[in-house]
Records
---
Amino acid sequence: MSALLLNAIVANASGPYTSGQTGYDISYPQCPGTSPPPGTFNFGIVGVTHGRPFRANDCLGPEYKVAAQLSTPSLYFNTGYSGAYRRNIRPACSAGPNQAWEIGCSEADYAASQASGLKVAMWWLDVEVGNSWSTSDSTLNQQTIQGAVDRLSSAGLVGVYSTASSWNTITGGTFSPNGSSADWVAGGSCSTSFDGKPVWLSQFTSSGFDNDTAC
């Protein structure tokens, strides 16, 4: 497997966020992405993909530029498992232990290629039931998530965005990916980890935008 080259930010053990700070996350729904959400923020998180794996957020550049005025942005990307995604397996991931792992690895590799040259405070995997997942074998979903984490672990900090309900449905509820440092909880609190990892961010909605509190 080839080395993944990204401009990673070295963070301390508690991650790139300071407890009590507030940030926002933004992606393709907010295109053209030339203005930040209303409010006072310390950090921004930008989506690399357009709601699905292997589909680019065309506004990554301008949205990243706006978020970078606050601090080095974190990035997130959509994940999912489907046998059809095998056509998207990338050369850097084609020698993995199984096809599901190769798909997850390729989702991360695709996201990293979209963010080539950008400094990244942290990478987040977006794991939601709205994307395609196996409904009959949660092991395939676990392997996909693990492949994505493995692909980015050499680039710096990696975490997972989800909810307890989504995580239980997708992974079976007992899976905790190796190499993932933390959780970003949607609509939860700083005490509601879904996979046993520390919660670094809790998401809430304000004025129609997604805001985030650092735990």
---
Amino acid sequence: MKQAYSNPLISIILPIYNTESYLKKCIESVLNQKYDNLEIICIDDGSTDNSGLILDEYARKDFRIKALHKKNGGESNARNTGLQIMSGQYIGFIDCDDWIEPDMYETLLTNMIEKKVDIVASAWFRDIGSVSEKISNRLPASSEVFERETLLNYLYKRDDYRGFAYMWDKLYKRELFYDINGKLILFDEDLALGGDVLYLAKLVLNAKRAIYIDKAFYHYNQRDASGCHTRDLNKLEDWLEAYKRVIAYIQERNIKTEAMPWIKRFMAYHSSNVAESAYMQECREVLIRCQKIMEQYESEYISTNQQYPDRIIRYNKILKYKLSGGLVNEVE
């Protein structure tokens, strides 16, 4: 049913997997939103702990929760399940080990409607244990409505604009989720890591107008056990594939943007991280593969890191790493 303009429905997509220690706080923070016209799509992605039971308990108490249980298919697959059934005019994302402030969606939606924009972004909190640190921008982002090119620069100039990095600190207009043929855009499920990097780029490239609110609402729970901290080289290489696809997506559509060197810098940066991990794990094949990518984007990395000579020194050092005969050799 189409919602009234004055009280539009927000669909919140919440994939769940083995986070029983955090899930109650997460779900309650969504249920306790001041803005209550919510469709909370919770996808239990084959959890083996009590997460599924916790979800069902809350679903029995609140009709706004749509509880889905499925075989484990990964976060992107779970998010796609939610995207395919969402019915809201506006869409938000939350991770199952995080939580949000009570006025998050009320504030984002008010600005979305009043400013007539496609995306509203905000600052966020990084939670480590019981300590919350507000993460905002080093340089001031515009307090006025800005267009896509500015948004792209905010998104990829990460040293200066950290408030734009993720999917979950934003609210999106539904129209962004469809391509020019009206087909729903889905996450690439073959990426174990970095799927959100590619998907966020696609949403941003569909947007025309956005606004930023320098107030934090979203609490990102930084855990060592999360996928972002894996040492699995196959998974880590998915970060590289994600940025490779971002670059290809932009080039195939002949989109001209000043952000491209910064996007390539991320490609170079993640290549250096994977190369370093491969070196420590004595995996010569991955090391060489990543060093080739580092060489390909070396000029972009150096030109965008002129303020950080220590990064350039590290980069050049990793380019010289060698593995041979099963022995680790670091070239000075």
---
Amino acid sequence: MKARLYCLKTLQRVFQEGAYASILLRHADVDKKDIDFVSEIVYGTIRNYQLLEFQWRKYANATNQKNSLLLDMTIYQMFFMDSVPDYAAIHEAVELAKESDKSFINAILRKVQAEGLQSSNDLSIQYSHPKWMIDLWNAHYGEEITQKILEENQKPSRVYGRINTLKCKKEDFDASFYFLNDICFISENNIVKMEKFKEGKIVIQDYHAQMVVDALDVKEDMNVLDLCAAPGTKTQQIAMYMNNKGHIIAGDYLENRLELVNSLMDRCGVEIVETILNDATINHFEEESFDRILMDVPCSGMGDLSHKPEIRYSLKPEDIDNLIAIQEKILDANASALKKGGILVYSTCTLNKKENEKQVEKFLKKNSQFELLEEKTLFPFDDHSDGFYYAKLKRKQS
């Protein structure tokens, strides 16, 4: 399939069906040499959707979604991709349009080209985020931090790798791997295509996600519960820190998600993980049976808007209310399974105090036998990484 046609079809599925671009691009029906080109157009158009619409809506308020997305992706190429000449982008757009729409598409694009890229004082347009989300961040973190979040979300996400010390060590890697610490690295090469990845010697895992597991402070021979484990990268990191000694129960609510966990454990040589089909909002475990519990709970994903830019258009405020209720149930149902003196880490990949600090504060008011040791918000702009929050809680000895 031609590269630009695939871009258009992918964008249609994202905006019409709520599909994730990352999943669609994983199986892209285009030549391998065009993958990077397609990825930039698709992700760039999604990240800048409202700004791109702003460029042409003054000339045509009403048109079908195919034409709208065709205009959006072409304008992205014209103003954001130096490698694509305007004439080529416009020509290809006209070729993709229906015969009856060709003159319309050409005329709109020529007007936009003549006017140049227009900016807006409205942050929701300029940074292509819903106004309610910007207002929430302003209220929770202030305008300066909000501005930095918006700017960071518009950048292409960085892919971080982590070594699996059960199969290799840092010294086994050459200078093409740039290490941030003893286990986390970035590389200019495609990690998924590396033999080390296929052999389970390295995994793809966000830098801030790795810090969440660090807070769990696991040791060999512990009994650990990972409640919402799929796809399993945190589970594998826990097992790695335990040197494959002890026991980890990894739960999730769908069989196909548990299959991802099992597949990763097999590839990475992990032998101490038991996967279970589990509704985390219900307590299935005996009291004081785990040394450590990780609750990486379902959340609104507002820390992950560079990596998954579609979320900003599909997420609604009422969705968050439902998630907050689920998070509270997970905390309340499973906290009693932690041993006295044990550590529980509650985490999300969102930037929203109602799901984060307020959720933990509410839990602590109801559970005086727990104390807060540490809590941290990891903003996307801190390390060009995903936004995360974690709270490290300890169950008191008495």
